[in-house]
Amino acid sequence: MAPHPVAELTSPSSWAMVEDKFSPFAKETLAKLIAFIDAEVLPATRIAHAQIPADPETRWKTVVPIIAELKVKAKKLGLWNLFLSKAHYPQFGVPLTNLEYAVMAEILGRSGPMTSEVVNCSAPDTGNMEVLARYGSPEQQKKWLIPLLNGEIRSAFAMTERFVSSSDATNIRTSIRQEGDEIVINGHKWWISGAGDPRTKVHLVMGKSDPNNPNTHTQQSVVIVPADAPGVTVVRPMHVFGYDDAPEGHCEVKYENVRVPLSNLVLGWGKGFEIIQGRLGPGRIHHCMRSIGAAQNALDLMLQRVTDPSRKTFGKYLYEHGSVVAEIAQCRADIEGARLLVLSAANQIDKARAKGALKEIGIAKFVVPAMACRVIDRAIQAFGAEGVSQDQPLAQAYAGLRTLRLADGPDAVHMQQIGQRELRRAPALAKRTAEIKKKERVLMERLGMKAHA
Amino acid sequence: MAPHPVAELTSPSSWAMVEDKFSPFAKETLAKLIAFIDAEVLPATRIAHAQIPADPETRWKTVVPIIAELKVKAKKLGLWNLFLSKAHYPQFGVPLTNLEYAVMAEILGRSGPMTSEVVNCSAPDTGNMEVLARYGSPEQQKKWLIPLLNGEIRSAFAMTERFVSSSDATNIRTSIRQEGDEIVINGHKWWISGAGDPRTKVHLVMGKSDPNNPNTHTQQSVVIVPADAPGVTVVRPMHVFGYDDAPEGHCEVKYENVRVPLSNLVLGWGKGFEIIQGRLGPGRIHHCMRSIGAAQNALDLMLQRVTDPSRKTFGKYLYEHGSVVAEIAQCRADIEGARLLVLSAANQIDKARAKGALKEIGIAKFVVPAMACRVIDRAIQAFGAEGVSQDQPLAQAYAGLRTLRLADGPDAVHMQQIGQRELRRAPALAKRTAEIKKKERVLMERLGMKAHA
Amino acid sequence: MAPHPVAELTSPSSWAMVEDKFSPFAKETLAKLIAFIDAEVLPATRIAHAQIPADPETRWKTVVPIIAELKVKAKKLGLWNLFLSKAHYPQFGVPLTNLEYAVMAEILGRSGPMTSEVVNCSAPDTGNMEVLARYGSPEQQKKWLIPLLNGEIRSAFAMTERFVSSSDATNIRTSIRQEGDEIVINGHKWWISGAGDPRTKVHLVMGKSDPNNPNTHTQQSVVIVPADAPGVTVVRPMHVFGYDDAPEGHCEVKYENVRVPLSNLVLGWGKGFEIIQGRLGPGRIHHCMRSIGAAQNALDLMLQRVTDPSRKTFGKYLYEHGSVVAEIAQCRADIEGARLLVLSAANQIDKARAKGALKEIGIAKFVVPAMACRVIDRAIQAFGAEGVSQDQPLAQAYAGLRTLRLADGPDAVHMQQIGQRELRRAPALAKRTAEIKKKERVLMERLGMKAHA
Amino acid sequence: MAPHPVAELTSPSSWAMVEDKFSPFAKETLAKLIAFIDAEVLPATRIAHAQIPADPETRWKTVVPIIAELKVKAKKLGLWNLFLSKAHYPQFGVPLTNLEYAVMAEILGRSGPMTSEVVNCSAPDTGNMEVLARYGSPEQQKKWLIPLLNGEIRSAFAMTERFVSSSDATNIRTSIRQEGDEIVINGHKWWISGAGDPRTKVHLVMGKSDPNNPNTHTQQSVVIVPADAPGVTVVRPMHVFGYDDAPEGHCEVKYENVRVPLSNLVLGWGKGFEIIQGRLGPGRIHHCMRSIGAAQNALDLMLQRVTDPSRKTFGKYLYEHGSVVAEIAQCRADIEGARLLVLSAANQIDKARAKGALKEIGIAKFVVPAMACRVIDRAIQAFGAEGVSQDQPLAQAYAGLRTLRLADGPDAVHMQQIGQRELRRAPALAKRTAEIKKKERVLMERLGMKAHA
């Protein structure tokens, strides 16, 4: 039997660890996805870039034509909304597990950020769809979720705020308060991905509805805000290194006396923190799996560069110099280990939902983007100055991955959480040690030995 | 259902990745092993150390009484020869896969080097039993394999030589030649593990029987040499960071005109390289899995130390200082990733034998011992000076793991091999890139775009 | 006595190592420079950025008004051409040693790339002035060097080529040939810094005038090309992590049948390699010293961020979390060590010219930019997402420093050269060891001891 | 002029940084020291090792004959007590600065721990001599300091305690109390270097004389205790990895109702903390400089190994494989940077005493031993298994250096202190930033620009 295409592309042994956890449908979908990307998406990537105008005004009003075309094709092929597991979202989901999607997400990440959009699996829409599918009212679902699931509109998620450290959610200052049968929103956010896109019709906005509640986990609420509501101002795009990531962008946005009907409240007053928690877990692992793909792509580019005869120096291929081969080996090993961590986390989500996989998600969150940065950085070095330029995808990929070490909680926060979880194992370990010591003493007495101080 | 003890000890999510690949017998054996180690082996560890005399003479003539006792118990419980998979050694093996044993080997490594010996799974006996089981004549098997399988004798494997870099097997100088119906061996080896042990009755000696053969892979042969054959001299024990690892030791050994009957040749003339190759693959993965256990144990000790109230400084627990929690998180992540790499390699051996798992074994070989060294080093730092002393197992564990980065091929050799394997993927990648470029050109023409230079 | 301002800004103990090597003039100039930057340059930095239009066309036609103003002021203060040591360039230089300038270059680097330009010390002009001062004919000096020294024009240096690895100078393909009393240049370069600037009036172009000469070091020549000569086309700016560094830029440039008079040849036919070598040494150390300043600035920003009360999370200052303090200590130590390496290299250039300081320059070249990248990366992490944005100078500084690990020879090339130099010490070491062994044997005999094998 | 021998041995450019700070006497002494070590000490090193018996009893009763001989020779040559700077100890010192000694200490460290002893510059005697020279009464000096200065006796310093984390001095439990005209000492110490040596005649013991004093810095006192006083028991040698470092050793010592006359109190009641602080600063820098030498020696050994024709593998020298040359370059760079840090710290001690050089000493303390460990570890890898054995000095050097990362305060403590010192710079930086911002606003107004939010 021919090996599955994923094994050819990446790692047969990682595939061997999970193959028997894959349904026939998942295997078939995966093969289709791989074929579609090679045949349709990758040949269109540079064209898509060229279709975004350089002009600072018009580039934010653009719907990239070739992406729109590809979306139609992907949807027709059933390569659509693959992230939404039917097991967790029976009404809207596709029959794929998180583990199965994790492998597909790697394939998506391998071919650049555009591919996720083509199959309607790109952030922040994915997380927003999950929120609406899980917590939205039927009315909210009809108005916002269905168009999102159909890829007709896009969306933003507004949490991070300027001037405060919003990795501590209690620092959030945006105010959300009821006035009659309306909700009034005032706040100053930034890094709102997608807010620059002309297709973005809706923002999910998190703010404080009960800022003095002693329970800091019920101070927050989430409200649906139409992108064109009066008082919503997209101030400017934030740059990531020198990239503005138009047309989606990561924008600074002001909400000034924005008014929406009460029915735009999601789930209920004070449910903001709960919604966020539910949203972030799977989102992080999707990012991680795409990061594996990005690292894999960097390594593949590096392999082609160092074996390119036109790049010889001093009569030798680049790979024949110094530590290049060792670096390639290190890249391969780094990717393999990180991939297995992500697959294991995805498997754990399938077994115990995101809540039961916090440890695995947390580890992946601080290991994988940092790993991908290292791999891409090595690849950049192999490419020389071209590596940092617009002629290769490496520098932009690096910028994105580097930012991922800050987004959804910086590395340090996740490391603290994982470290604290480990510390909780200490009492059981101490008890076990005490029991062993006790048996040791009994044994020593039996043997007539004197215990050491 | 209560979780399996292994999940409690180590990592539920790693266990979740492999649990459905475990037979009921394997699960039961694993639980029994865990219980036996806690109840019997760990309480005896310091006693075993105390039973080795300090005197430089007698310490090399000692059979440690408590280990001998424990071996009897382990054998009775069926915790015996777990490394020898029936699938690969139908005549002598136990019904366990490599993957199943890999998890058990971690448990062995977690409790120190002694435990492997107690269950008759310690190097170099394991590799020697594999050689004799696979390549030995019935007579050789009867005389040497059966007593080894029974734990009645121990053995040595003599490959590494003094004065040459024997990681290149063609540098081997030991001469093995036929004289009449005898074989005469002359050579100067060192780092011969087990050669110091009074129970060691047999050496498998590798040397050159056909040094001028242009095929450098058929110059070598392997011969069985009784440890007490005239001409065999154990010169001295080599030290590893000050440790002599008595009574087994890693010894310098001279073979001067040692004569053995022709029937002591293993497999045939010129088969030495083939035998070595077969021997090293699984051996490396066993080492790796034990290394995971050693790292896990170091982390567990560290957790207990940094939460110990009697170790507070400046009014705070050690874990409350600086980067301790982050280091613990890093240790946990390092161990998780490495464990999955080893499990994946073991699974690959089960699927495609060692030959089909060279990549996975090679990656584990250079990743895992280095990872374990890092983890143990961090644990040492948490213990202060006590960490480098005889009162904790950390420094000795470090010395062993550090040496593992040199044994069975230094890290650099494995990295070169893995890197070179990766380079072989380059032509297929270049072909794929060319195809995508071609499609891109077609698409650009269709859209009336000018291709960039 | 009040400490010198440089000691206050950076490191008293580094200053103590070199203070007595500083002339009174140098100390005075340094103090003036520090005061000028604080009073005039730093308050103007964001304004200068704002004066560069976003429009993709006009941004390349801009002379930034405030920089032009500052240049006038700096020149009047004598803060001008500080890089050009009178000791090496008696006719044109200022009375400063390389060591003295090295400290000033750190101060320049500390306040961003603009400051170097303000005091007419920015690459590639510095290296071009050195070339013209050392190798230029009086006519060439009058026409091009004097306006450069006066800051009236800017310049470019065209070496790196597209499609080949030009870190091996023999790969250069640009053709430079004589036709009658003209020189004809054909070539395709990129990463030509300054080529985008409207003030750039001249390119120094390196190419092959004798490509088949068996002596690969005499194949190259350098020619002066007016920027507006027919056949010179600036194709596009190259991006560095999304930055185009307008208006200077790093451009792709084509030279198609460009014709210049014979008198534009620098030094003579076949002298290109010699010119390059002379040009790169001091240039590299200037880059390194500026990099120290960039790292120092990142650390200073980080210190302000982690002590900012408005950035508290979970009730604590950022510096009270996890490993922040340890990271700051590491940054400080990294900077100190690197600074001393650069000072030592500059001192060595003063003692033995660049040729006698190749080792020191080479070490600094691969140590310092990598160090600065690490420090800046840590600072980015402390700033959260803002760290990668246009609101802080960190991401752009990182992009520049990262590129420096590729420019003027990638790290690997310098490491190979330094490593090879070290290897040359081996024979003398082996001889010394042999002599010691010989004395050891004599001593052992005298003491009646048996030598170990 | 021929270069100074130190420049030949190590780094001409480091030497160039400090040469003009060296007196003629210091230069002459340094040259004499280098010559003496090559001619006399290095040929005797293995002999000295062989003169220490393996027998666990007698090895602790040995005065190594060849070391005793060499001490006589060194003293005669004036290579004696070089660490004791006359500037700081006018009565007893030699006319050398700390900077001058720092270079000599590197030379000592380069040739192994024995050389320091030969020239009477080995810890803990050095620190104890400093304590007695600075704080001792004339009577104490006559009785203990003079014999130490003469090299007739050796000494121990008893601070670290078992069962507590004594890096926090307030955890010290040893009790020192007055009874009549006697002092009674009770305590349980370990890691007491030198306590195992038959020549050790005196312990300086730190303990608490006023444990309830609210000023935690005046609770401690230091008392002189004769090594043979009743109640002093050397319990056992502590091992460092597997080394016992006989005959000096690092021992566990009990003080049980030890009685000494009141006149054995050093400096006065409650002066213990002050004494310790004065003792540790220069001691740390001596350790660091010796560590540079140890690293340099490891690199020199590595260079010889990788160029040794008898160590070729696969037809190539070791240095021709993979990343060996790059690693050598990294070692060289690591050593250069660290050496300059230590020289700079020593220079700072000369300028501002140890108290004014806390930052520099602290940085060196956590940078240098870790650096030396890395370099030695790389060298070990180049040597293969021989690198961890008793046939090369590398593993033992590693063990010593690794322990140095824990001794005199673990790395983390020094990093915290340096990091905290840096944080103190934050207010001045914030003030400077505010001033620049203010000027920026003025300038923007003048230019009619709108300030960014």
Automatic annotation (TrEMBL), chains A, B, C, D:
The keyword Transcription does not apply. Residues 270-421 form the Acyl-CoA dehydrogenase/oxidase C-terminal domain. Keywords: FAD, Flavoprotein, Oxidoreductase. It comes from the Eukaryota. GO terms for molecular function: acyl-CoA dehydrogenase activity; flavin adenine dinucleotide binding. Residues 61-152 form the Acyl-CoA dehydrogenase/oxidase N-terminal domain. Residues 156-258 form the Acyl-CoA oxidase/dehydrogenase middle domain. Pfam families: Acyl-CoA_dh_1 (PF00441), Acyl-CoA_dh_M (PF02770), Acyl-CoA_dh_N (PF02771). Its cofactor is FAD. One of its GO terms (cellular component) is cytoplasm. The keyword Oxidoreductase applies. GO terms for biological process: fatty acid beta-oxidation using acyl-CoA dehydrogenase. PANTHER family: ACYL-COA DEHYDROGENASE FAMILY MEMBER 11, MEDIUM-CHAIN SPECIFIC ACYL-COA DEHYDROGENASE, MITOCHONDRIAL-RELATED. Homodimer. Belongs to the acyl-CoA dehydrogenase family. This is Acyl-CoA dehydrogenase NM domain-like protein. It comes from Jaapia argillacea MUCL 33604.
